[in-house]
Structures are given as structure tokens and as C-alpha cells.
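The instructor's notes for this session suggest beginning with a concrete chain rather than abstract definitions. Hand out the sequence below and ask the class to guess, before any prediction is shown, which regions might be ordered.
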Amino acid sequence: MNKGKFVVIDGTDGSGKGTQLNLLSKKLRHLKIPFKTIDFPRYSDNAYGKLAGRYLKGEFGGIKFVSPYLASLAFAGDRLLAKPLIDEWLNKGFLVISNRYASSNKAHMSANIEPGKRKEFMDWLDNLEYKTNKLPRPDLTIFLYVTPEIGQQNVDSKKIREYLEDEKRDILEKDLKHLQDSSEVYLYLSKTEPNWKVINCMSEGKMRSREEIHKEILKVLNKDKILKNG
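After discussion, reveal the predicted structure:
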């Protein structure tokens, strides 16, 4: 049996990652392509995910109160616990699609490091996730881009998320400067890491339709031979 492909859908905050994962799942069911999906962080599944949720809620203070070296461990630990499941799916030949992955940790945590030290931090985190924790590397990362300003507006239109209780934005989403910095890191990663495809979710300063973005994702998957048809 051939090993399955591993695709990550990542993006700036409010770019519609969850929406696109749902549309893609519907398409894959229609095409009868065996697939599995997973979302990170898993806020209620384990101690690491719960800790990540508490961090994002601001229980430990603002962004500057917790070292990115420490904060990133909660998100990395959540993925580490999911590794056996992801490996099992891939070994059984499933197409595995993840909403966010190590790339999200790298972008958001690096944004809280002074620019001159970001490369050192990213190398450390890459070593932690992929060498120490031995996570599978994605075959393809699809990066959805929206400007931080539009992203904040989109976040405000989301349904209430359980881990935030009655808050609309987590501590990262509240901070426009952080969103701008993490967006810069994401774009840097899209140019320096292998197998990244960037999809601009905006046109003339406005969000493109979810259907239009979905079609572009399908084109990317077909071009990279992830899908055999569609």
C-alpha cells in the first residue's frame, strides 16, 4: 500500500482555514477519496491543548509575559500526542489534511521574537517539532493570506469559540502588531520552506468568495498530484 499524502492548510488569522477545510472535505467525499482531517490546537483533547487554550485566552498574561520558547511547547506537545494517529492514517494510505500545523507555531511564536533572533528561534522550533518529536513533514502546505486588518474583521464574525468563552478574539488576534509580524513571518516561510503554495484570499482590498478560493485550492492539489481528479 502506498503511503498517504499529508497536506496542511495554514494561513493568517481570519483567512478562512476552517471553511476551506470543510469545503475540501465535502469535495473529497464526492470524489470518494479516502481522507482524514485534524485540527490544531486541540483545545479540549489533552493537557497540552488545554494549556494552549489558556495561553491564548490570556490567563498567563499578555503576549510579552510568556517566552515564546515556553509558549510554543504547549502547541508542540499537542501535536506530539497526535503523531501516532497521523502516522497510522498515512501508513494506511489516507490523504491527511491538517488545519494548522507546526508552521503556525513557527509563525506566531517567531513574531514575538526580535527580528534579529527569529532565525535562531525558528531553527530551534523546527528541530523540536521534526527531529526531537519526529513529526511527519507535510507534502504540501497551502497558505491562505489575508491582511491583518481584514483578518481581525473576519475573526469578529466567527461564532463563539469554547476556549475563549465570551471573548471574540484571543490575545494574538487582539494585537494588530502581532498579526502584522506573524504575517511577515508566514510570507518568509512561504519563500524559504519547501512545498508551500500561497493563495491570496483578497482582491481589490476585499475577501474573495469562499467558492473561488476553494477552486484555487483544488487546482493546487491537482497540480501537485495530490488529487487524481476533481
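Then share the key points. Residues 68-91 form the longest helix (24 residues). The beta strands are 6-11, 35-39, 95-99, 140-145, 196-200, 202-203, 206-207.
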